[in-house]
From TrEMBL:
The keyword DNA-binding does not apply. Its cofactor is Mg(2+). This is Diacylglycerol kinase. NCBIfam families: PRK13055.1 (NF009603), YegS/Rv2252/BmrU family lipid kinase (TIGR00147). The keyword Magnesium applies. Gene3D superfamilies: 2.60.200.40, Probable inorganic polyphosphate/atp-NAD kinase, domain 1. Keywords: ATP-binding, Kinase, Lipid biosynthesis, Lipid metabolism, Magnesium, Metal-binding, Nucleotide-binding, Phospholipid biosynthesis, Phospholipid metabolism, Transferase. The lineage of its organism: Bacteria, Bacillati, Bacillota, Bacilli, Lactobacillales. Residues 1-134 form the DAGKc domain. It holds the Pfam family DAGK_cat. One of its GO terms (molecular function) is kinase activity. It comes from the Bacteria.
């Protein structure tokens, strides 16, 4: 019986290059041994996520997510909660394509990225689960909280498309003088941190916003998050940390807590109680604190590059 594969693609990703590549991608999927079909996402909320769930429940063995990190996140959210999950492949066509970078998928050529499935090399990857008031959401690359994380969703998409990484640097420089601290209780495997902080990152990979040394010890399938807590919000100290982060030396700084954990609980303390503190999942606002995170080890099997 022929295996079925579904291409879920965002037509506006990659400077709207996706539609003209669909036929070639479907042909590659057929060469890989799948009966292939395509779904073009719409403006409906969670369009890719809903189609991923439908395809998985219909018995599709592979879902190919083509678009930016947001499209990939939606497809993951469409299947991560299921008992029987299809394999996934990704075709990057966004601005930073962090997860494609982590999986060694070609990021400059859509057709070449699709050919990764022809090599039949897969790896079961960890998935992050965030629970807000009993409701679960999932992520594959990064969860973040704190005033500095606003730069990931505070940059308009058209500016990100035009300037790439530079857009984040410009936004970060603009925000530094106005950063505020939040008072939180963080409960993780090695203990509890209570106090003020500018930002925390919970990473699945080593790449954030295109920078590859932010989480230098990241593994993709060990069941552990990389937890980074930035305790200072002083602009001068943050600029120094940004410079150190270019080569991974920030993790040893006194203003940083860097550890591994299977779970994390975030609670508001002091003057932060009652605030709507957003939690960013793969570059988009997921929901608001409090939140509990759990690492779902080797939850989804992905096609990976060399």
């Amino acid at each position: 019986m022929t295996k079925k594969a579904r291409l879920i693609y965002n037509p506006v990703s990659g400077h709207e290059q996706m539609p003209k590549n669909v036929a070639d991608i479907l042909d590659t999927m057929e060469q890989a041994g799948y009966e292939a079909s395509a779904f073009r996402t719409t403006r409906e909320k969670q369009s890719a996520q809903k189609e991923a769930t439908r395809a998985a429940q219909a018995g599709f063995e592979l879902i190919v997510a083509a678009g930016g990190d947001g499209t990939i996140n939606e497809v993951v959210n469409g299947i991560a909660f299921l008992d029987k999950r299809p394999k996934m492949a990704i075709i990057p066509a966004g601005t930073t394509n962090d997860y494609a970078r982590a999986l060694h998928i070609p990021r400059e050529n859509i057709a070449e990225a699709s050919k990764v499935i022809l090599k039949h090399k897969t790896q079961k990857m960890d998935i992050g689960q965030a629970t807000f008031a009993g409701e679960n959401q999932y992520f594959v690359n990064i969860a973040a909280c704190g005033s500095l994380t606003e730069l990931t969703y505070g940059v308009p998409s058209e500016i990100k498309s035009a300037l790439g990484y530079t857009a984040y640097l410009i936004k970060g420089a603009e925000m530094l003088p106005n950063l505020t601290e939040n008072e939180l209780r963080l409960t993780y495997d090695e203990g509890v941190y209570e106090g003020k902080l500018a930002m925390l990152l919970l990473g699945m990979t080593n790449t954030i916003g295109g920078f590859e040394q932010v989480m230098p010890d990241a593994e993709l399938c060990d069941g552990l998050f990389q937890l980074m807590i930035v305790k200072t919000s002083e602009p001068v100290k943050l600029l120094r940390l940004m410079v150190l982060a270019m080569n991974g030396k920030h993790v040893d700084d006194n203003d940083i807590i860097y550890t591994k954990t299977t779970s994390l609980k975030i609670e508001l303390l002091g003057k932060s109680v009652g605030k709507k503190l957003p939690v960013n999942l793969d570059g988009e606002i997921g929901d608001y604190c409090p939140v509990t995170f759990k690492n779902l080890q080797q939850r989804i099997e992905f096609y990976v590059g060399e």
